[in-house]
Design brief:
Blueprint lengths: L5 E3 L15 H4 L5 E3 L8 E2 L5 H8 L5 E6 L2 E10 L2 E4 L23 E4 L8 E10 L11 E5 L10 E3 L7 E6 L3 E3 L2 E5 L5 E6 L7 E4 L20 E2 L8 E6 L2 E12 L11 E6 L3 H9 L4 E2 L15 H13 L16 H15 L16 E2 L1 H10 L20 H10 L2 E2 L28 H8 L8
Parallel strand pairs: 3-12, 10-18, 10-20
Antiparallel strand pairs: 1-2, 3-16, 4-5, 4-7, 5-6, 6-9, 7-8, 8-9, 11-14, 11-17, 12-13, 15-19, 17-18, 18-19, 21-22
Helix pairs in contact: 4-5
């Protein structure tokens, strides 16, 4: 998280805790600044896994670099266009105890360094401009963009996507303090590290927890850690959170901070927090900076005819019903073909057909952007048939058009996609705390006959 010009000495400082902004305004008058003299390395890792494995993972992300100013290591950042570097707002704004969406750093003395070892860098690039998101100290909007003096060559910029990452395995990369979960030393050695974790929550911020191998520090989801489980540390602020989408890594979050209710910062139990690309204010900021937000993935056009239509969603529904988990239909890259991929298709197709950020609604059988009587008529004409087709009314992809599909339509009836422009479909109904609908008991025979006669932070 935070490793910038001043190093706030301990967790008692309410202005800038390591990895976090907490009680910002109250802390301005009381925090004591200690000069930062170290260079930044990165990531807290499992104590029982070779460190080399984390180095090897980090090497797969050449677009991640370190941001330095005249005082030394500042934060981590990612090349997202040939001349643009995405980082956190708090890395450049608020260093002088005043958050006003204007950079505090000396821009002419700021550089972006690429390579796995910034002590022996691959390249160093001058920064000529800094733009700060309208963040006002809030972690959910903690983003900034650096403009470089010249485009970077030889490194492919990372893509940015607003895909829902809940429940997915994600990779964090950075140049912050490094150590292990049982005794975080906060060492600094200029080396880039990466670790993985499962995204637990995505609204209003993206979060994950650092699970101890003995299962004693779990906060979210499973208590069993991943093989390369880890968390973030001071200096990782501004670093990316990648998920696999459409077969390649894409950025869905920018590191804001973290906290640990189980012990010391960055040890087992630590929770990391990222500002989400899916947040509408963050999307607007990125687009204003000329960054393309990952929209419709070409793989979602399954028949490659240039359209996102019933042919595509019906093919996907059939795959979900069959349970084949074919890679061709795995839009979210999690190795499964299920409701999550249907939701992703609705989001991608909605962005393509209805406008950026607009997702089709559940129950919209004819894909016109409205859930209305025409969609009910589709369901009614096909009710009690075996059909694994969205555009025939099989909204839950189970291969049948029945009362459960009517319930989906009923809970979304008379709504349209445009009025929920900023809403995102949950990654899966089982994991969502903001589920679009609740199950309704299947209607009895008399009701069906009647319907058939009608035409329609914690902190960090």
């Amino acid at each position: 998280m935070i490793s910038q010009r001043p190093a706030w000495s301990n967790m008692n400082c309410p202005l800038l805790q390591p990895k976090a902004f907490v009680n910002l305004i109250l802390g301005i008058a009381t925090c004591v600044v200690a000069a930062f003299s170290g260079q930044a390395a990165a990531i807290s890792i499992r104590h029982d896994v070779p460190e080399a494995d984390y180095f090897n993972l980090a090497a797969q992300f050449p677009a991640v670099g370190r941001i330095d100013d005249e005082f030394g290591a500042l934060c981590s950042g990612t090349l997202v266009a040939p001349d643009k570097v995405l980082t956190a707002a708090h890395c450049v704004d608020g260093l002088n105890a005043s958050i006003n969406n204007v950079p505090d750093i000396t821009i002419s003395a700021t550089t972006f360094i690429l390579g796995n070892d910034v002590g022996n860098p691959d390249s160093v690039h001058d920064v000529i401009a800094v733009a700060v998101n309208r963040w006002n100290g809030l972690g959910e909007f903690d983003m900034a963009m650096l403009t470089l003096a010249a485009p970077v060559t030889g490194v492919v910029p990372s893509t940015v996507s607003d895909v829902d990452s809940a429940g997915q395995v994600a990779t964090m990369v950075g140049f912050g303090g490094n150590g292990v979960g049982i005794n975080f030393a906060d060492d600094f050695d200029d080396l880039k590290r990466a670790a993985q974790n499962v995204v637990s929550t995505t609204a209003p911020t993206v979060r994950s927890d650092f699970d101890h191998p003995n299962g004693s520090t779990n906060t979210f989801g499973s208590s069993t850690p991943l093989a390369l489980e880890g968390t973030t540390a001071g200096g990782d602020s501004g670093g990316p959170l990648y998920i696999n989408h459409g077969g390649s890594p894409t950025i869905t979050g920018v590191l804001h901070g973290g906290f640990n209710d189980f012990g010391r910062d960055s040890e087992y139990g630590d929770i990391s927090i990222w500002a989400s690309v899916a947040n509408s204010r963050n999307r607007d900021f990125l687009i204003a900076q000329g960054i393309t937000i990952g929209g419709p993935d070409v793989t979602a056009d399954f028949n490659s005819d240039g359209n996102y239509d019933c042919t595509d969603i019906d093919s996907l529904n059939a795959e979900v019903a069959a349970g084949s988990n074919s890679a061709e239909f795995d839009l979210d890259g999690d190795g499964l073909v299920n409701d999550s991929d249907v939701n992703q298709w609705l989001s991608d197709a909605g962005s393509a057909n209805l406008g950026q950020g607009i997702s089709y609604r559940m129950g919209d059988s004819n894909l016109d952007g409205f859930v209305d009587a025409s969609d009910f008529n589709v369901w009614n004409e096909n009710k009690f048939t075996q059909a694994s087709a969205w555009c025939s009314g099989d909204f839950n992809s189970d291969g049948f058009v029945d009362g459960s599909d009517f319930n989906v339509w009923n809970q979304n009836k008379f709504t349209n996609s445009a009025i929920r422009r900023s809403a995102r479909m949950p990654a899966s109904f089982a994991h969502s705390s903001t589920r679009e609908f609740q199950a309704v008991p299947e209607p009895g025979g008399a009701l069906l006959l009647l319907l058939g006669a009608v035409g329609f932070v914690r902190r960090k």
